[in-house]
Amino acid sequence: MLSRELVKEALRRALSTGADYAEVFAEHTLSKNINMISGKTDKIADAVISGVGIRIFQGTRCVSGSASSLDPEAVLGCASKVANALTGTAVVQDILLRERLFGDVHPVKIVPGSVANAEKIDYVREACLAAKDYSEEISQVSGSFLEVDHQIFIANSEGLFARDRQIRSRILVHSIASRDGENQNGAVNHGARKGLELLGEYDPRELGKEASRQAVTMLHAGYIKAGTMPVAIENGFGGVIFHEACGHSLEASSVALGQSQFAGKLGTQIANEKVTAIDDGTIPNSWGSMNIDDEGTPAQRNVLIENGILKSYMIDKLNGRRMGMASTGSSRRQSYQYEPTSRMTNTYIAAGEDEDSDIISSIEYGLYAKSMGGGSVNPVTGQFNFAVDEGYVIRNGKICEPVRGASLIGKGSEILMNIDMVGKNVARAQGMCGSSSGSIPTDVGQPLIRVSSIVVGGR
Amino acid sequence: MTYQEFKEAVTGYAVKNGIADYELYYEGGWSDSVEIYKEEVKGYSTEESMGVCFRCIVEGRAGYASTENLTEEEARSLVLRALENAGSIESEEESFIHKKGDDYAVCPKEDSPQPSGAELVEAALSLQKELYQADSRVTDGTQAYMSYSSYKYALCNSNGLDLEDEFSMAGCYGIALVEKDGEMYDGFENKREKSLQAFKLKEIAETAVEEAVSTIGAGSVPSGKYTIVFSNKAMATLLATYSSVFSAEMAQKGMSLLNGKEGEKIAADCITIIDDPRYRDSMVKRTFDGEGVAAYAKSVVEKGVLSTLLHNLKTAAKAGVKSTGNASKASYSSVVGVSPFTFYIQSPEERPEGEKENHSKVPEALFRKAGDGIYVKELMGLHAGANAVTGDFSLSAKGFLITEGSKGAPVRNFTVSGNFFELLKDVEVLGNDLEFIQGKFGSPSILVRDIAVAGQDA
Questions:
Q1: Chain B: residue nearest A140 by CA?
Q2: What is the least distance, in Å, from the CA of A298 to any CA of chain B?
Q3: Which residue of A295, B195, B212, B339 pairs with B112 in a disulfide if CB–CB is 3.0 to 4.6 A?
Q4: Rounded distance between C-alpha atoms, residue A325 and residue A345, angstroms
């Protein structure tokens, strides 16, 4: 992407005013998003993203710059601009760039860009048509196929010279059911760090049916009565509870500045002893996986919480300096335009020992959250919230009628202590996580869990 | 190559491939920003960005391709990719390249000078100092940000349109952290101005710190139905989240319940919603939309009646109306959609007949009307807990109790639930304290009754 000579000169310039570390990140990304509505392709976005991001550190101070170009002139200009923010003289002299090859543990069988639109469109159409056929109450169906071919290059003043190519594909189906001027929706999505072979793993008709089943179920559901109650949260996207309630507060970007409820808590109990949680960027072909992070550190499997005890944060190089700790391979950025920082990859609560049936039957009155929507958190206070897309009332240990409009809110440190039953069957699901370094693909996951008490918003 | 050279190369390839209708859209800009932690510069960033999008219409169908690489090879690839994509579109609704002939507003050239890096740092350090001085309980983790950014949008097409909008703004953001008995509380304030000098740093700091301090010791509330005063910012947040329901594109796709409701009463009499591309206090002043149609101010809801949905050329043609100049692109690489410019609920005093009875700039007048209830200062988790298709929302909130007509104790960890469409109809009265969020969505405070609240039950 960039020649060794150019990179060396850019690093030299970036270091010329006293920085003790410099890094060049370059990117060339192809992305395509095919959208279908009413069974017909409606819009196709097709983009080339290409540019450079340069950072220098002086102690814990960071200067960064970016430019939408890979021209030598633009790269060197960016390096000079970054250096101009400091006023010292060079302290790092010789940079010996050694090319390093990281193995690719995420093989891709069919590079999506090498296949014409038609094949992808046919798949999405089949899913959409099955969704529409599910019921007469389905008023609208949209679907999309997203492909990203993200090539990155990273070099730094420690001698790193590395690259990676990250290919991701994702299929989404969204159904709307309508009755008497009311709408409800349902959605299904699957994504992976894979090429077009992803599509072969799912019957498109089943995806469509599932999205519509959810929409129609919710259309016939009443509102849940608000209150504080026990909640059983299903596996898969249910893991968003850990992602929001805890994961963000374990990112060094919050911890290093004392902006996290879990700062200074390493080695102490922060969760119920049934909870073990892991952030693993190495799972082959998983949506949130990578070979190297966006600072060139190999991806790792980080045990965050073990039997309730806080074991590790997720750390990037810059915040690691502030904390006096090494990177955990957690530095990520949406693109060269964003400064990288510590983020999650594939984060999940590990399997426990409770039977699913015992979890449900233990609840006298509460909520079964079968399918979760998104959520958000304030890492400072730990206050989080998320939406329940498909919920059911539990009465006398039995799952009863569906309920709509429920949301769960609470405080991370409290909810973690209240996860008092953990099932055996872990499943993961895909999401896009937005934070200061942009929107990045992450997996969430868990087995079925019980939260003994949580505020459920409803009517 | 330069943008001008790239433009010529793309035009050449378009003509060579027999494309008669096409458009090249450009978005560029730069931004310098500084971040303060404790009393030091933590980060300084300088960014330049640029991208172009080629859009062609073949047999009424639009094909797009975008790039950030201005090379001869990329010019060729851009045209071929867009052509292939146009060929894959099956939707029968016609897309258009806009014709000349609109009357475009002229925006005065800005003359505020660009601040130097040192000035940016100095302003941010001053804000940080004000944050610490505002209250003795302010703790580390408190941060000040200052930025200065410049934006340029250009559009040219095969019908000879050649348009350009350019503007700059300074941004300021303070986050205050306060610690009490091992619990942390935060508050924010964020402002945009034409120049760094225009920021009232002390005021910004005090607002952020006050927000954090005032929540100390916040409890929850029992579940039930309450009279609610939504703060101006909380209501603006709801309006922002639900702004897509006013899009004709969403309506035509059956994804907005306002479909076909033009001319009907959809809100209380006191509600008038305006979309203005050059709102007087906005830093962003646009003269054309994402398809090159002249942008103008319009009321979308007039005294409770839906006067129009927002249109681009495609949705307008389908509905048999004129475009409202609301074609939008989230970024240069996005496909054309529909969205508002500066979008706000008018406060009573801005109405021509100007409501005289209620001139308070603060929500206290609404507290008196509420009697007992909850003042919702902030809503959280909008992207998850609010659904534009159904109108349902169930959102995490924080604020204060309203007791006998006055602001009482702070409360948090509760949700407010309802439906946006019902809420619009149920608004009883508006305050006179119009305020904007994201520099784009605005509302005065509002009073509504009988809203479901979930809180901590014994």
A1: B254
A2: 25
A3: B195
A4: 19
- Residues B177 and A15: their CA atoms lie apart, in Å, by 34
Residue B314 and residue B303 in contact, taking contact as beta carbons nearer than 8 Å = no
Instruction: Flag if A70 and B69 touch (Cβ within 8 Å).
Output: yes
The three-class DSSP label of residue B84 is helix
Q: What ipTM is given for this predicted complex?
A: 0.91
Any CB–CB contact under 8 A between B233 and chain A? no
Distance from A107 to chain B by nearest Cα, in Å?
Answer: 27
Establish if B66 touches chain A: CB-CB under 8 angstroms.
yes
Query: A360: which 2 tokens?
Result: 């449900």
Tell me the nearest-neighbour CA distance from B451 into chain A, angstroms.
Answer: 8
> Which residues on chain A are in Cβ contact (under 8 Å) with B43?
61-64, 339
Q: What is the pLDDT along chain A (459 residues), one digit of tens a residue?
A: 899 999 999 999 999 999 999 999 999 999 999 999 999 999 999 999 999 999 999 999 999 999 999 999 999 999 999 999 999 999 987 888 988 888 889 999 999 999 999 999 999 999 999 999 999 999 999 999 999 999 999 999 999 999 999 999 999 999 999 999 888 999 999 999 999 999 999 999 999 999 999 999 999 999 888 899 999 999 999 999 999 889 999 999 999 998 888 999 999 999 999 999 999 999 999 999 999 999 999 999 999 999 999 999 999 999 999 999 999 999 999 999 999 999 999 999 999 999 999 999 999 999 999 999 888 888 788 888 888 999 999 999 999 999 998 899 998 889 999 999 999 999 999 999 999 999 999 999 999 999 999 999 887
Contacts of B220 in chain A (CB under 8 A): 455
Mutate to test the interface with A, among B38, B47, B175 (most CBs of A within 10 A): B47
- The Cα–Cα gap between B278 and B46 comes to 28
B381–A38 CB contact, under 8 Å = no
DSSP code at position B275: E
pTM: 0.93
Cβ of A458 within 8 Å of Cβ of B392? The answer is: no
Which of A46, A178, A457 is opposite residue B65, by nearest beta carbon? A46
- CA B403 vs CA B371, B395, B396, B407, B446: distances in Å: 6, 23, 21, 6, 17
